[in-house]
Structure formats: structure tokens, C-alpha cells
Amino acid sequence: MLLHHEWHSKGAGAKLNWLRASVLGANDGIVSVASIVAGVAGASDSSGFILTAGTAGLVAGALSMAVGEYISVSTQRDTERALLQKEKFELETMPEQEFEELVSMYEAKGVTSQTARIVAKELTDHGAFAAHIDVELGIDPNNLTNPVSAALASAGSFFLGALIPLIVVVFPPASLRMPVMLFAVVVALAGTGMLSAYAGGANKTKATLRVMFGGILAMAITFGVGKIIGIVGGI
């Protein structure tokens, strides 16, 4: 039952990490593009300008998320592979020292020296490499993160989030653009705030208010900057 619980917890943790990354990507898309179109809307009433700037922000942001996530996860995966190779080499060249290291790691967890040696012996007999990478590295060699999947997930979540402000800002008349977009963005941010709180096990009210306040503040600042530029530049 304990082993099943540990396996289930690890699987749930991985899913929550993906959910958290997706929610953050969507939230980034909402805030980034909403801020861009708010800034342009503050400077100009042209639907063409607003749509062009918003679309450029959407495409650039999604690509940036994809590239950044791909590089980050690829680096992490390369590091994990290097650690696995290093551990395999050490087990082949110095098995006695590695066994004593495994014993000491269990002792550090609070297990008595005698019990730690028994556990280390049984696990080593069953599979020394698996025992060491689990306790020492915490890496599952059969479940390394895929950088392509991570990049696509980040880009996709950003894209979907960015579509919300881009769609709602184009169709209403100029006098209603900002109120309509503000309402849609606040609702969307409330949703991502609740999901991020669920993924992180945090207080839902605090997380939702924090996300909403940050998004509204970013929109307000860029709208103000756009207004100033519009006045100074005579747009």
C-alpha cells in the first residue's frame, strides 16, 4: 500500500508540474498581450494597429516561450543524463565505496546503521544502479522530461491565453474596447489564479487576487504609457 501511494504521489506530482507550467504559460499570454493591446489602444483607436500589435505579441511570445522552455528542459535533461553516466561509471569502478555511500545516505535519513546496511545490501542485489539514482539523484531514467513536449506545451498555453485579450479587444467599438477587455481579462486571470493555487496547494483567494492585481496593474501602466505616447506623438 505504501509503495502504491508513493508511486501515485510521484505521478500526481508530475501532472501538477505540467498543470502549473501550463497555467503560468496561459497567464503570461493573457497579461503580455493584454498589456500590449492596452498600450496601443491608449495611443490609437485604429483596430488595424491594435490587431497587428496584438498578433505580433502573440506570435513572438509563443515562440519565445517555446524556445526558452526547449533550451531550459534540454539543459536539465543533459545534466540528468550526465549524472546518470557518472553514477554508472562510479558503480563500475568503485562498487565498495558506492555501497558505503548508499548506507550512509540511509543513515542520514534516520535509519539505524544495521538496518541501513541490510536495506542497502538488498537494494544493491536487486539493482545497484536503480537504488543509487533513486536515493542519491532522485531521477527516473525512463521518465526524463521531453524538451519538445515541454516547448509545445508552453507555446500552446501562451497562445491560448493570448487569444483572449486579442479577440475581445478587436470587435467592440472604440469606446467599449478597454472595459470589455478588462472584464474578459479579469475573468480569465481569476480562472488561471484558481488553477495555479490548485496546482501549488496554495490559498485560492490570495492566489487569484494576486494574479488579477498583477494583470490589471500591467494593463493600466501600459495603457497610460500608450496615452502619453499618443499625446506626445500626435497619434
Kindly describe this structure.
There is one protein chain. This protein is mostly helical and 235 residues long. The protein has one domain (19-233). The chain has helices at residues 2-43, 47-93, 95-108, 113-137, 147-170, 177-200, 204-233. Helix 2 packs antiparallel against helix 4 (113-137), helix 2 runs antiparallel to helix 5 and helix 6 (177-200) packs antiparallel against helix 7. The chain is elongated, with a radius of gyration of 25 Å. It starts with a helix and ends with a helix. The relative contact order is 0.17.
List the main descriptive attributes of the protein structure presented here.
235 residues, mainly alpha, 7 helices, 0% strand, disordered N terminus
